[in-house]
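ok trying again, last paste got cut off:
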Amino acid sequence: MVNRENNPNYIEYAIGKGYDVEVDVRLVDGELWLGHDKPQYRIERAWLNKLSKYLWIHCKDLEAARACHEYQAFCHSTDPYIYTSAGIIWVHNEFRPSSVDNMLILCAINKSNLEYLINTTTQEKPYGVCTDYPTLLESYI
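nice, full thing came through this time. structure:
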């Protein structure tokens, strides 16, 4: 399977299907790049502006955080949870909160965390779920 993570064409496709998308942004020599472990896809600020309503920007370095402060953005490495600039709590993939509510975006990157989320008995749903398996959640959300 082709890796689609941070690919601008796939991001636009997912947004077109009605999903928000978490992207990894870096600033290198004054230019914005998408890429989880390294800069892979150079993007223009116009691209971010056009899609910013649907993007959750994970700033991978301090320079990116400075450049993306006006968007829905966040920074973290190993913290179990962080606040995004939109005031929503982003919960790290390894952390399983004891309760779920509409202030949380839960990361369920692997299938076991996704199954945990689906099987959690709670009255409230999270604000959102960050996952590589969005279609598995369609009956949940």
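cool. The first strand starts at residue 21 and ends at 28. The chain has four helices and nine strands.
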